[in-house]
Amino acid sequence: MRAYKDRPILFVFSDTDIDSQSSREALLLYGFAKRAAGESNATLLPIAAVPREQLSSDESTIRSIVDWIANPIKPDTTAAIK
Questions:
Q1: DSSP string of 3-43, one letter each residue
Q2: Would you list the domain boundaries of the chain?
Q3: Taking the model in full, what pTM does it have?
Q4: Which one has a higher pLDDT value, 18 or 40?
Q5: Cα–Cα distance measured from residue 57 to residue 18, given in angstroms and rounded to the nearest whole number
Q6: Is the pLDDT of residue 74 over 80?
Q7: What number is the average pLDDT over the span 29-50?
Q8: CA–CA distances in Å: residue 19 to residues 54, 55, 61, 70, 73
Q9: Cα dist from 10 to 15, 28, 37, 74, 82, whole Å
Q10: Which carries the bigger pLDDT value, residue 17 or residue 79?
Q11: Rounded to whole angstroms, how far apart are CA atoms 10 and 65?
């Protein structure tokens, strides 16, 4: 994660598998990414009610990923409003 630096990164996981090893690893890597790449560059996308085996063929998941690709940086919510 440190070598990845401050580039946007997306972690996708199925919340139906929240107790699985892959979901725990996604959450752990997301935590590392927030510290290494910055809060605004790390995005966690939990997909509801879609088993991980079906994530790559789920239209809603694909749409969410494409939307993220179009705008991968989260807005800075800590900036003062003028």
A1: TTTTS-EEEEEEGGGTTSHHHHHHHHHHHHHHHHH-TTTEE
A2: 9-70
A3: 0.75
A4: 40
A5: 19
A6: no
A7: 89
A8: 17, 17, 20, 30, 28
A9: 15, 13, 11, 11, 30
A10: 17
A11: 8
